[in-house]
Amino acid sequence: MSAAWTYVCASEELLPGEMKTAFDDVTGAPIVVFNLDGELYALEDQCTHEEFELSSGSIDPVEGSIECVLHGARFDVRDGRALCAPAYTAVPKFPVKRENGGIWARDDRD
Question: Which terminal Cβ of the chain has fewer Cβ within 10 Å, N or C?
């Protein structure tokens, strides 16, 4: 397992209510990072219902959720859990940090 972090964007490029995407430098996993009221959360950028990118969907900053545009599955951006059908499996959550003026995330799965 690698401890390499992937640079996502400069801190000022990710404002509250916004999201940015990146690909893990080591595993190639798609990552989407959310800014929810100044707190950062990172999930795999893939709906667990039908392997479609979540970042194409819309974020609800009040509920703290992202909705997949394909079939309307919603996930909690804080922990990845599925909030409604047709998705029942949580989206993997990844570590995210602010460092050296940037936002970094990584796929920490074995």
Answer: C
